[in-house]
Automatic annotation (TrEMBL):
Protein name in UniProt: Carbohydrate ABC transporter permease
Compartments in which it is found: Cell membrane
Primary localization: membrane
GO cellular component: plasma membrane
PANTHER family for this protein: ABC TRANSPORTER PERMEASE PROTEIN MG189-RELATED-RELATED (PTHR43744), SN-GLYCEROL-3-PHOSPHATE TRANSPORT SYSTEM PERMEASE PROTEIN UGPE (PTHR43744:SF8)
Length: 293
């Protein structure tokens, strides 16, 4: 009798567990669907918006498809908005900033996390303090410094602040990862006669590919979309970056709404492409780092 009661009492428990799992799956599916809609739909809507003419846009039918796609909006945006010139400037500034940030942050993180020296924690605290400084508080001092250095209205005047503001978060990410690298790897390399530079280049850097890719993505997105410094320190039209170009185009073509939408799509396109490219490299880097670790 007791055994029968015991068997009967197990069945409701299994059913309850299955119901709970199904509820969790439904909630997860709803959450993911909501994220997809909120993230993908604005981009899709902007693309549809860029293919409409002014009459369709001003009609108020925001969710309707264009009767005849106006691909001319994109050609107008590229030609009249000097798109490729702004794109070249943004690529130059962002690429140089990413290279310098990766170089400085990886060297600093290696010294902080792998060396035993007196001021290691003090240097780390200094980098953490650098993360707390607001960008707006540095505009006037930087303006005075760059004016005295005669580098205003040059790409160097925005690359230097970009490097300064992106390096602390990069050091924070890389140093946390490098601290988790087993000491036995370095000890075996030292026994083989490897120097400190050789250990850094051949041992630590290959293992640190995943966080370095993360730093690349964060740096790229932050620098590519930055507007305040570029608008403050750059006045020459031929040196301005793409975010400022978007603002200039919107101000100049405020009555051609379709062309404005096309320029916004073109401005967002490089970020989307680079993001997915680097995201794929993060996955590969995590696998490579796990095997080498």
């Amino acid at each position: 009798m007791n055994s029968t009661l015991g068997v009967v009492s197990v069945k409701p428990t299994a059913e309850v567990r299955r119901k709970r799992l199904s509820i969790v799956k439904v909630l997860a599916l709803v959450l993911l669907s909501g994220l997809v809609v909120t993230q993908v739909y604005p981009l899709l809507w902007l693309f549809i918006y860029s293919l409409k003419n002014n009459e369709e846009i001003l009609s108020g039918r925001f969710f309707s498809l264009p009767a005849s796609p106006q691909w001319k909006n994109f050609s107008d945006a590229i030609a009249a908005g000097h798109y490729f010139q702004y794109l070249k400037n943004s690529l130059l500034v962002t690429s140089l900033t990413m290279v310098v940030v990766l170089l400085l942050s990886s060297l600093a993180s290696f010294a902080i996390s792998r060396f035993r020296w007196k001021y290691g924690q003090t240097v780390m605290v200094i980098f953490l303090i650098g993360m707390m400084i607001p960008l707006q508080a540095t505009l006037l001092p930087l303006m005075i410094i760059f004016k005295n250095m005669h580098i205003l209205n040059t790409h160097l005047s925005i690359i230097l602040p970009y490097v300064a503001f992106q390096t602390p978060i990069a050091v924070f990410i890389l140093s946390g990862f490098m601290k988790s690298i087993p000491n036995e790897i370095e000890e075996s390399a030292v026994m083989d006669g490897a120097s400190v530079i050789r250990i850094f280049r051949s041992v630590v850097l290959p293992i640190s590919i995943p966080p370095m890719m993360t730093v690349c993505i964060l740096t790229f997105i932050n620098i590519w979309n930055e507007y305040i410094l570029a608008a403050t320190f750059i006045s020459s039209e031929r040196l301005k970056t793409l975010p400022f170009g978007v603002n200039s185009f919107v101000s100049q073509y405020s009555v051609n709404y379709g062309a404005i939408g096309a320029f916004l799509v073109l401005g967002a396109l490089p970020v989307i492409l680079i993001y997915f490219l680097l995201a794929d490299k993060i996955t590969k880097g995590m696998v490579a780092g796990a095997v080498k670790g």
